[in-house]
Design goal:
about 350 residues, Isopropylmalate Dehydrogenase, Rossmann fold, 10-stranded mixed sheet, 11 helices, 12 strands, about 15% strand, binds 1,4-dihydronicotinamide adenine dinucleotide
Length: about 350
């Protein structure tokens, strides 16, 4: 049951840098006057360490009950071990649309200025079906799944987002020249949804390899990007690199009734426990969550709190207060303090 109480949300700290960045973000939200009451649950290695499943049923149930979660990253072992908590959660909760805004930030100097992209990634199908088999010793297979329903609803989400928010255009990245059935279905569904429901939205398509080349040469030619699961995963990190890295790109996993907000980055084992991770990507994800609360529930102070936090982190960066990944010297907590200092300025 989704209680849809405007004031409760699930907090999943995750593992690696997750607990550090979630603690910092929670503190900023409290100081900004957010009325959210957190219901904390574990997932990932943090849950395993407590003798629970990697994605405990109680955690999924809590998101189903409260409808919304802010989540830290969760580690997935490479080439062995348990399957990804993130993939499991997105599938179980039908969080079919990953929304990832990628924007230039004040005081963060990168090769390009004024980047303003939104990636819409299909979040439940493709090669993330997790169906892999050994056919014969020495030959393995991974199944790429595309359904008409899945391809249609993600395209609908992207065009609707573009239209409602007055964005300029949607570009679908694909490899339908090779994967004629799966990516072919993705493209056909998108074209059909476009023609039938959103003919006024500017829409084009590009083969993904050339699209990546164009993206690093001239990102300004893109606006909204629509793609299936694996391409969206890879292109998200590519685009993060255009605006300062994984420390500054937020995300939302949106379903019909539930939504989980998390940064694009992972658990960053190389810096975990050092107190130096950039909490900004998760803080920006929390701003997306507050705006979502304001749009979908009667949560009066959410929009105001979101604006306050956004203004404060932009000012913090403009003042040159940054963590190490952006060339600064602040720790995770010092960056959070610097944002808090600017909440009322
Ligand atoms: P990663 O995003 O964790 O790290 C890549 C690089 O970016 C590292 O050098 C890291 O230090 C840096 N970085 C990432 N976030 C940062 C932050 N907030 N501040 C400063 N630097 C930051 O990607 P990687 O290494 O490929 O994956 C590590 C683990 O995270 C894997 O187990 C992977 O499966 C998992 N992962 C989890 C995700 C999730 O929970 N949504 C998403 C992506 C990866």
């Amino acid at each position: 049951m989704n209680t849809n109480s405007s004031k409760t949300a699930v907090l999943i700290p995750g593992d690696g840098i997750g607990p550090e960045v979630t603690a910092a973000v929670k503190r900023v939200l409290e100081k900004a006057g957010s009325e959210i009451q957190w219901v904390e649950h574990n997932a990932g290695i943090a849950a395993l360490d407590q003798g629970k499943d990697v994605l405990p049923q109680e955690t999924t149930d809590a998101v189903l009950e409260h409808g919304i979660a802010l989540k830290g990253p969760c580690t997935t072992p490479v080439g062995k071990g348990f399957s990804s908590v993130n993939v499991q959660m997105r599938k179980k909760l039908h969080l079919y649309a990953a929304v990832r805004p990628v924007r230039s930030l004040p005081g963060v100097k990168t090769r390009y200025e004024n980047i303003d992209l939104v990636i819409i990634r299909e979040n439940t199908e493709g090669l993330y079906s997790g169906v892999e088999n050994e056919i014969t010793p020495g030959t393995v297979m991974s199944m790429k799944v595309a359904t008409e329903k899945g391809c249609t609803r993600i395209a609908d989400y992207a065009f609707d987002y573009c239209q409602k928010r007055g964005r300029k255009k949607v570009t679908a990245f694909h490899k339908a020249n090779i994967m004629k059935l799966t990516d072919g279905m993705f493209l056909n569904c998108a074209q059909k949804v476009h023609d039938e429901k959103y003919p006024a939205v500017n829409y084009d398509t590009l083969i993904i390899d050339a699209a990546c080349m164009k993206m690093v040469q001239n990102p300004g030619q893109f606006d909204m990007l629509l793609m299936e699961n694996l391409y969206g995963d890879v292109v998200s990190d590519l685009c993060a690199g255009l605006v300062g890295g994984l420390g500054v790109v937020p995300g939302a996993n949106i379903g019909l009734e539930h939504a989980v907000f998390e940064a694009v980055h992972g658990s960053a084992p190389d810096i975990a426990g050092k107190g130096i991770a950039n909490p900004l990507a998760l803080l920006m994800s929390s701003v997306m969550m507050l705006n979502y609360l304001s749009d979908t529930r009667n949560c009066a102070n959410s929009k105001q709190t979101a604006q306050k936090i956004k203004h404060a982190y932009n000012q913090t960066l403009a003042d040159g207060c940054k963590t190490g990944d952006l060339g600064g010297e602040l720790s995770t907590e010092q960056f959070a303090d610097a944002v808090i200092d600017r909440l009322n300025g």
